[in-house]
Amino acid sequence: DEKDEIGNEDSDESDNPDSVSLKWAIFKTYVNPITICAVLGIIWSATGVKMITFLEETSNTLQKATLGAGLFVVGLFMFHHPFIKFNIPRVILYIFIHYFIIPSISILWSYILKIDSTQAIINALSHVAPLGIFGSFLAQNTGYKMKCVSYTFFWSNVVFLPIFMLWILFLKEVTIFSD
User: Fold this and answer.
1) Is it the case that residue 45 has pLDDT exceeding 60?
2) Neighbouring residues of 25: CB distance < 8 A, sequence distance ≥ 6
3) Closest by alpha carbon to 179, among 103, 100, 121?
4) How far apart are CA 34 and CA 141, in angstroms?
């Protein structure tokens, strides 16, 4: 019997009542509250209708709670998952891809499209933001459970600030963008 990253015995997919078919996993990936709200927000923006004062004030209040809610979620992950019983090379690879490969692709595209330096730097730094809870949400809905997703989420939040500062130093010194 093999064990997964947190010590649970792996079982055959047919024995797992939480396993999900590929079609259902794809459906749940695209039809969820996050994507539905994003599409509704784009539609609302396209109409040009002014937002009702009540909704605008409510959304402004919720925006102020985002940082606290994010820290609370990170705390929940820290409480429910051990720190060291995970596939270390896989999590390091995921974090490397997220913090170095994806921003590098963003910088490359900014250079190819000749985007001015301010927009290019903002674009690159937005790809350096820590992983959101969306990946965990998708992992749960597609039957993958948490496995490396939760550990990657946790460690990406732990290492975010030093890596973000290194990117700022790098982007401040490199002048590859047109102004």
Assistant:
1) yes
2) 141, 142, 143
3) 121
4) 13
At 84-115, the pLDDT tens digits run 677 778 888 888 888 899 999 998 998 888 88
Q: What is the pLDDT of residue 38?
A: 85
Return d(Cα 24, Cα 30) in angstroms, integer.
Answer: 10
**Helix 66-80 crosses helix 53-64 at what angle (to 10 degrees)?**
40
Percent of the chain residues topping a pLDDT of 70:
71
> What average pLDDT is seen over the chain?
76
Cα–Cα distance, 90 to 104 (Å, whole number): 20
The C-alpha atoms of residue 79 and residue 58 are separated, in whole angstroms, by 31
Q: Is 95 exposed, middle or buried (0-12, 13-18, 19+ CB in 10 A)?
A: buried
As beta bridge partners, residue 178 has 116
